[in-house]
Structure formats: structure tokens, C-alpha cells
Amino acid sequence: MFKKFTAIILTICFLFALSSCGENASSSSPLKASEFISARVDEKTSFRYDEYEDYIIITGINGAPDELKIPETLGDKEVRAIGDNAFADMGWVTEIDIPDTVVEIGKNAFSGAVSAKKISLSENLYSIGSSAFFGARKIENIRLPLDLKVIGGFAFADCEKLEGISIPKVTFSIGGGAFQNTEYLNKQTDEFVIVGDNVLIHYNGEDEKVTIPEDVKTVSAFCDNFFVKEVVFPESAEEIGEYAFVNSSVEKITLSENIRKIGDSAFDSCLYLEKIVANEKLEEIGSFAFAGCQALKEFTVTEKVKNVGDGAFARCDGLEKLTFTSSKTEIGENICDSCGNSLKISCPKNSPVITYTKENKFILDII
């Protein structure tokens, strides 16, 4: 019950970080950036949609149909994506049918579809967003397309009856809690549950110190874990998935040298995390990656980090020193929101961090 409550709260929190599907498609996604034209409603089908120069993104529907059959085209353009929150909280929907033109499903797109008994996915689907099907309690089986690459955090969480599902071998990114509170995950008995392209999605042990097995590339296994205190990553690891450790009791993290990405909210609300040493190959720190890590006292953003996302260190009450070693690192909004004014931020001259530090009255140290 506690885990279900936590997942529901986290889903609500996702709304603060939502962004346009068309504007923020992954660089390797089939959905490329395209010029926005206008937001419209199709008179025949009542679907709301955003029209772009090259495609359509469905954003909702006027009315309350029992069956959601997404059209392949609207006007003379293909429907290529389902937008964030498009059909959220439509608890009366019993069937969802997504055509093969769709390559992306946005965050929370069908969350709360508690009556849905049948979901048919596009065969060309590239990614399923965070909490996309959260709470679809009656779904027992779902076929994931063989070329699916990305499954967001909590995507199928609280799909309590979901048992018949197979993760494609090519799926390289799976967010934390993606299958939390499902029959599928409950029946996994291995100590380390590794699926897709060597993605660690769950840890069944109770050791306080965990060394992740070699060959694991992405780690998304420890959300809501209250046993593990320390995690050591293998050299094969390249990514820490979104929500990987959210709300866990981890205290110490040892990153291997090949990790390049820390996903959105990866360590959000890890109240006891005291130490994490970033490696020299790290390139990206996601939005809210360390938000609420109240025991974290210092962190160094290493030379190759290109971007630190929105609110990455928000609510880190105990953070005393944040160091940026490169003047080229870009930062999102409110990266240290609700941190104390005694926080010292060190960075090179000409860094965009300088303006942020001054505006928020943190202590500035030019290095």
C-alpha cells in the first residue's frame, strides 16, 4: 500500500516537468523536430491535436468514448505521437488502439485508465513515456513491439494484473518502477532482474551493499528500496535510468568510469545519500536528478557534463558546495531551488552558472 501511494505521489510530481513531445524528442528518435503550425480539433472524430509541418500529435479528445481508436491520419498528415497527458484519468475507457504510424507515447498519456481491458500498441513504437499506462489495473496482457527502445519510469506501474508481457531485446532504456506492483514483476525470482538490452530493472536481494553484475548497461532497479545502502556499478554501466533510486535509502554511490547519463529524478528524495562521486565521462545530469537529497553535502559537476537539468539539486537542504569544472556546462531552471543561502557555488569565469548564483544570492567562488 505504501509503495502504491508513493508511486501515485510521484506521478503527480511528473506534471511539473512535462514538456512538448514534438519539441523534446530524443535525438535518436524517429520523431524529429518540426515547426509547430496550430492546435486544432477534428470535427469528425473530436480528437484534439497539434499540427506540425511534418506530422500530427494527438493531445486529447472532446467527449467520453468507451473505446479510443487513434486515427492514422488527420487531414493529410500522419499521426506520429500521443502527447503528454492526452488521455489521462479517463477511467471509463475499456479499449485503446494505437496505429502503426505512432512512434512515441508521451508522459501520463493514458494514466488512470482503470477500466481498460485491451491495449493495442503501434508496431513502430520507439518510446513509451513515464507513467503512460500507470494504474491500468485490468490489463492482463500487452504485446510490446519488437523494436521498442524506451520505456519510461512507472510506465506500467500499478497495472496489478499485468502478467503477459515480454521486454524486447533492443530496449535499452527502462525507467525506475516501470513495472512496479505488477504480476509480471512479482513473478521475477532472480536476485538481479535483467531484461532488454542488459537493463537492470529490479533487485530482489536484501544486502546493504550491492555490486551490480558485469554486462549491465542501464541501472533502474532501486526505487522504493529500503534495504540497500551502497551500490557499486560495473564498468559496463553507461546510464542510471530515470527514477532509478527515487525514494530509496541508499547512502553511497560509486560510479564506474563509463556512466555518461544520470536520468531525470534518478536520486530524487534519497534522504540519506551522503556521497556520490561523478566520473570524468559523465555528460548529462537530468532534471531533479538529486532533488531532495538532504544529506548530500557536496558535488562536483565534471568537465564533460554538457547539461544540468531543471531543479537538479532542488531541496538539497544540506548542500554546502557545488562545483562546476567547465564554463561550457549549461544549466536548467532553478537547479538549486530551496537550497540554503550558505551554499557555495564554484565555477570558472564566463560560466552561465555565475548569473544564476548571483540572482539567487548563493556564495560565488570563481575558480
- Gross morphology is globular
- The helix tally amounts to 3
Radius of gyration: 21 Å
Helix-strand makeup class: mainly beta
Biggest β-sheet description: 9 strands, mixed
Strand content: 25-35%
Q: How helical, in percent, are the residues?
A: under 10%
Distance between the termini: 49 Å
Reconstruct the topology from this structure.
Layout: H1 2-14, E1 36-41, E2 47-52, E3 56-61, E4 67-69, E5 73-74, E6 77-82, E7 95-97, E8 104-105, E9 118-120, E10 127-128, E11 150-151, E12 173-174, H2 183-186, E13 192-195, E14 199-203, E15 209-211, E16 218-219, E17 230-232, E18 239-240, E19 252-254, E20 261-262, E21 275-277, E22 284-285, E23 298-301, E24 307-308, E25 321-324, E26 330-331, E27 344-347, H3 353-359, E28 363-366
Parallel strand pairs: 3-6, 4-7, 6-8, 7-9, 8-10, 10-11, 11-12, 14-16, 15-17, 16-18, 17-19, 18-20, 19-21, 20-22, 22-24, 23-25, 24-26, 25-27, 27-28
Antiparallel strand pairs: 1-2, 2-3, 5-6, 13-14
